[in-house]
Amino acid sequence: MKWLNILKARLRALVRRDAVIEDIEEEMRAHVEMEAETNIERGMKPEEARREAIRSFGNLGRIRDLA
What we know:
Shape: elongated
Largest sheet: none
Structural class: mainly alpha
Radius of gyration: 16 Å
Helix content: over 70%
Oligomer: single chain
Number of helices: 4
């Protein structure tokens, strides 16, 4: 059954590549925002919190290109 899910995901990626990339970008944005919120709760200023969240997440462009 696991192979069927993998096959479905790969077919979707082939057929709907733009939608898959959009989903990945939205997921990355959500993670950055959650990390920024955590940083704010730790006492960072919002600009600093977001900058640090992006830095800690890594190179978003490279991650997206690997998809």
